[in-house]
Fold this sequence. Notes:
Number of helices: 17
Oligomer: single chain
CATH architecture of the largest domain: 3-Layer(aba) Sandwich
Helix content: 40-55%
Number of domains: 2
Mean pLDDT: 88
Strand order of the largest sheet: 9-10-8-11-7-12-13
Amino acid sequence: xxxxxxxxxxxxxxxxxxxxxxxxxxxxxxxxxxxxxxxxxxxxxxxxxxxxxxxxxxxxxxxxxxxxxxxxxxxxxxxxxxxxxxxxxxxxxxxxxxxxxxxxxxxxxxxxxxxxxxxxxxxxxxxxxxxxxxxxxxxxxxxxxxxxxxxxxxxxxxxxxxxxxxxxxxxxxxxxxxxxxxxxxxxxxxxxxxxxxxxxxxxxxxxxxxxxxxxxxxxxxxxxxxxxxxxxxxxxxxxxxxxxxxxxxxxxxxxxxxxxxxxxxxxxxxxxxxxxxxxxxxxxxxxxxxxxxxxxxxxxxxxxxxxxxxxxxxxxxxxxxxxxxxxxxxxxxxxxxxxxxxxxxxxxxxxxxxxxxxxxxxxxxxxxxxxxxxxxxxxxxxxxxxxxxxxxxxxxxxxxxxxxxxxxxxxxxxxxxxxxxxxxxxxxxxxxxxxxxxxxxxxxxxxxxxx
Length: 451
């Protein structure tokens, strides 16, 4: 270990020359569209006194860092070469994490970095890094950035400008395959037709199917009036509301747990006829960013690995919310002439968002050929798509199959439907392969972006 000058006994010096430099090198500038530093962040913590059971006092944490690109916030407490990290510092950080409702905290001095996680009432050391020389900051920045990449919540929007191409089928099956892998998946249904919500068993689908007359049907729809769903979630941080009140578990979760033996699950922020542009626009200024803000400020990144967003097949204020919240975009399209022309619009919109967010949103993973048949037209169109959009990959194609409609009617993902219907096995494998390809592609993009 190198001999340090007395400068490293000064907290301001450690902050400037190690911590702040580290954050910049880790890709988290002081103030940008995707990251903010809040120095001397204030946290109210309780203190017992002789005269009163509890007195709330205000403490200052050296930094709160808001990493909007990963939907992660974390605290930083700085120590010096003289004060060093010790049990008192660790206990103090745990208190700050608890009462600030922040998941992660970093303790750092010129010799080491420790990262802690606060969940379910306890603090756990996640990882640590020994600093050989605090004047060589890049290894420290790499360590912090690599950790943050392992705990980030990934957001994926499925978007097309043309209806009837199997968009919601793609949402439901990708969500199911991700959950089978052990991921915690949140589906955000932005489509007022609410097909994703129905397919995942959170919109009273069975009751609607069993309604025998118009009165019963209307009564079921009227029950949605009091339910907290997407619109309430978008404004939750301006109301006295927990985001969990807007989330419902999918009826598939028991099957996922029993059949696959994983901790994966699917939850849904459902939509209904209330999901309209007018209800979005009444939320006021920056209404097009409400979903992104709600996903970030709610802190639900503690609970989910992936968010899959089902968008309407037109560019509205609702759709714009989905695209601005999406780190990644997938574009489904049939291999027909008119569908190919409809690809241009979502590509243009996604790239504009990508340019305006320094690449933290709107990254197009690829085009998914849907309802593909072994005919000359589809082969020709696929070749045309590859030529026109040469910088965007064609992902695993989904063949046209009767089983897709049958599974959709049964409100089951293809992999589940195929367990009882062997004819569905082939197309179920295509959805599984596509999802694995998506995960690998995201991993590849994130590894490259961290270099």
